[in-house]
Amino acid sequence: MVPAATDPRWQRVLTSDGDLSSASLATKILITRLRREVRNAPAAIQEKIGELRAYFEKNAFAQADFAAF
């Protein structure tokens, strides 16, 4: 199950420089892009959390990646 958008882990994933080495390539690419976008426009974090959450909802293979966060 994918956590609600209000779960603090979403913000932590996008605002940290946490290790992504155990994540799939698709997840690494997406999170790296979203982190860069959040750094450039911090006010857009809720939009980016929504995008990241939708990715995990749509892609069952990536849910194992979220467990590592």
**Major β-sheet, in short?**
none
Domain module tally: 1
Low-confidence stretches: none
The topology string of helices and strands comes to HHHH
SS-based structural class?
mainly alpha
Principal-axes geometry comes out as globular
- Distance separating the two termini: 14 Å
Provide the β-strand percentage band: under 5%
In DSSP terms (H or I, runs of 4 or more residues), the helix count works out at 4
Secondary structure: helix percent: 55-70%
Q: Round the mean pLDDT to the nearest integer and report it.
A: 94
Strand segment tally: 0
What gyration radius follows from the Cα positions, in whole Å?
11 Å
Description:
By secondary structure, the chain is mostly helical. It has one domain (8-67). 62% of the residues lie in helices and 0% in strands. The chain starts with 7 loop residues before the first helix and ends with a helix.
Please outline what is shown here.
The chain is an all-alpha fold and 69 residues long. The chain is built from four helices and no strands.
Offer a few descriptive terms.
69 residues; mainly alpha; 4 helices; 62% helix
Question: What's the layout of helices and strands?
Answer:
Elements: H1 8-15, H2 25-40, H3 45-58, H4 63-67
